[in-house]
Fold these 3 entries.
Entry 1:
Amino acid sequence: MKKIHIAITDKKKVICVPRPSALPELLEVKENVIEDWFYSLPKGLESFLLQNPEEQNYFAKAFGYWVLCKSIPGMVENQNQYGMLKRKLSKFSKKLFRAIKNLAARIALQVQKFYFSHRFALN
């Protein structure tokens, strides 16, 4: 997994998937993607996922959760949520873990900018 796909739907859902082909499975009937972004993931993540292949889908869910927590004002991240993955990432490389969290914060800003610039159109 070298890139991650973030999509916003017309039903105000933020979806995070490791590959674009997984997106149609998550969309409901008559739900459309209105904005999407592709982000490159930090370099060390590829080697982490090679060592821990069972964590790939779990990582996509956790990353989506971290983006959501940062993008919704007032939402506080539960520190115990995805704790095992956090510990594995930190043990593997603290620098990688910080880079992933910083990327989640950057994506959250993009999501916020999109929502605030289109908030009247989405209502």
Entry 2:
Amino acid sequence: MGEILRWRLLLFQVSKDSVRDHEAFWDENEQVLTYEDTELRMDQIPTLLESEYRDCRRLLYEDLMFGTKDVSFMHAWALKDGANIDTVGWNFTQHRDNELLLRGTCKTLLAAIERSDQLCRLFLTDTRNPVNGYTWRENAVASYEATVQELLKRLCVLIHVSGGQPVRESEFLAMTWRNTQRRRSVTICHERVMIHVRYHKGQQQTGRYKENVRFLAHSVGELLLDYIVYVMPLRQILLRQQTPKALLSPFLWEKDGKVGIDGQLSRCLEDASIRARIPRLHGSSWRQITVATVKTKFASHIGVSEANVDDQDAEEIEEDIRIMTRQRNHKTQTVNRAYVDQTGASFGNVWDGLIRTALRASTLWQDFWGVETILKPKKRGHVEGKSRLTKRVAMGVYRLREPWLGDALLEAEARDAWTRSGLLDSNRDKIILYVRKRDEAKELADLLECGSYTARSGTTIEKGEEVAKWLALTDKPYLVATSAFAEGFDYPHVRLVINVNERESIVLFAQESGRAGKDHEKAYSLVLLHPLGSLWKMM
């Protein structure tokens, strides 16, 4: 035993001093990175992400959710989470503040099957038994579960690549979506989906874990939320068809209730590379590539202090913070735990400073690859095709067989100009249009094909549902309202308030305009006047 321990100590020392023979290196322009036999251009990672995101949306919304249109898609900024709740089986879907938004979502896909004769024939079979009636077809259930696994293969690549620098495969595959004896890995924090995993190095002597926190891009996080909210309940129903009283596994990347095996993430990354037609990546090569990318693309622009090896809580980065740290008489660990009372807070060793640092790091990583831009959900249907053709006509590369109307071209170009301006984040920002009369609200809402809020919009519950539906939509950010609109409404991301015709009271105007910019970011208030009558009739 003594000989084994001596060899162990020797290997520890050698591993710290040794340098690997294979090192990733850049070309002269720092646009192509080569590691062993893999030559990767920087523009190929966005191609990989876009390819996997497109497949994820198709598998989730068209196949697993049956193309259902009348659903409220999930957004992290609209949901609440209780980070300190450690009840076994708990996650954000059980938070009381989410009750209105999530009401009935657990049976949405089941109801879609019941409404569709085609889906009923596909999923159900008549047992010709007056007691049991219908039962699930085993082949349809197996096909549905196989589609789930295809989605998870692509979603894990999206999260692994776009969330930030890669975590270890074993910890990634052990990610949980609801509480077990330990708290879940998927949490909503800072209006983003946060992933928190821990790993324990085999060489470590202290028994302390390394905390890894990543924040997902909005589009990727919304895919994960929709999967948990809509698909998981149907999977639970199908599972109990085979095993009564069974529960879905709490692990996100499970198959048949078992956690993914070593090498699974690497295989998913290789398959994704083949689909995207880029050089084949696997777990170890991607780790080397990310290290080289951070050293070259970030290290020269971001000042990073030398961390104190003996103090795991050393997180000071900026010079001002370092100066204030020297002035105090206690360690960072004491501040994070004793003074801020973080010992019993969420995730044990994960304090607010680490979470905010991780948010900053994930944001930098996603900005570098342009994740939020390339993964922005595309509008579906005729409008999307019309807009795309408009751009091609404007560029002189396509000509329609039918006469093209100038006003349609102008409309599409105006829409593109608004998108390019960057004034509105379609994932969260909203617009309120105030009018004076109820009939005007209805007329304008019909014209814009959006919701409206007046004193006659229904009961308090119906009004609340209308507002929740508006907040959940990303393709139509506007709501037409009168002065009756939600006096206690405090959604922070109202970016623009438009008053159609002037207000009779400056106080009412101030109250309505004050609904914009509560998130302390730049917001706008606009008054539209026309001396000849109804403004939108003149447009």
Entry 3:
Amino acid sequence: MKLVLKPLTCGSGLVLLLALAGCAGEVEPQVKYVRVEVPVQVPCRVPEVAIPAWAADGLRKADSLEVKVRALLAERRQRIGYERQLVAATSACR
């Protein structure tokens, strides 16, 4: 069996030339960096709120009613102040 090479016809040569020309004009893509804003969790660092010595902790059973009421009112004010400190500490982390 004999291998016979046929010469390229004008149309097929033109197609081959256009295919090569199409690949030659292709530009290599350039790397482009884009900044993307993404929220990142960070730990909240606030000083710990110290628990006060409550006024009603030192009450005894034998104390008068007036002493007990005064101590409970004082403790109520202490708790309100303590809660405000806790709210301030947690709102600093928002």
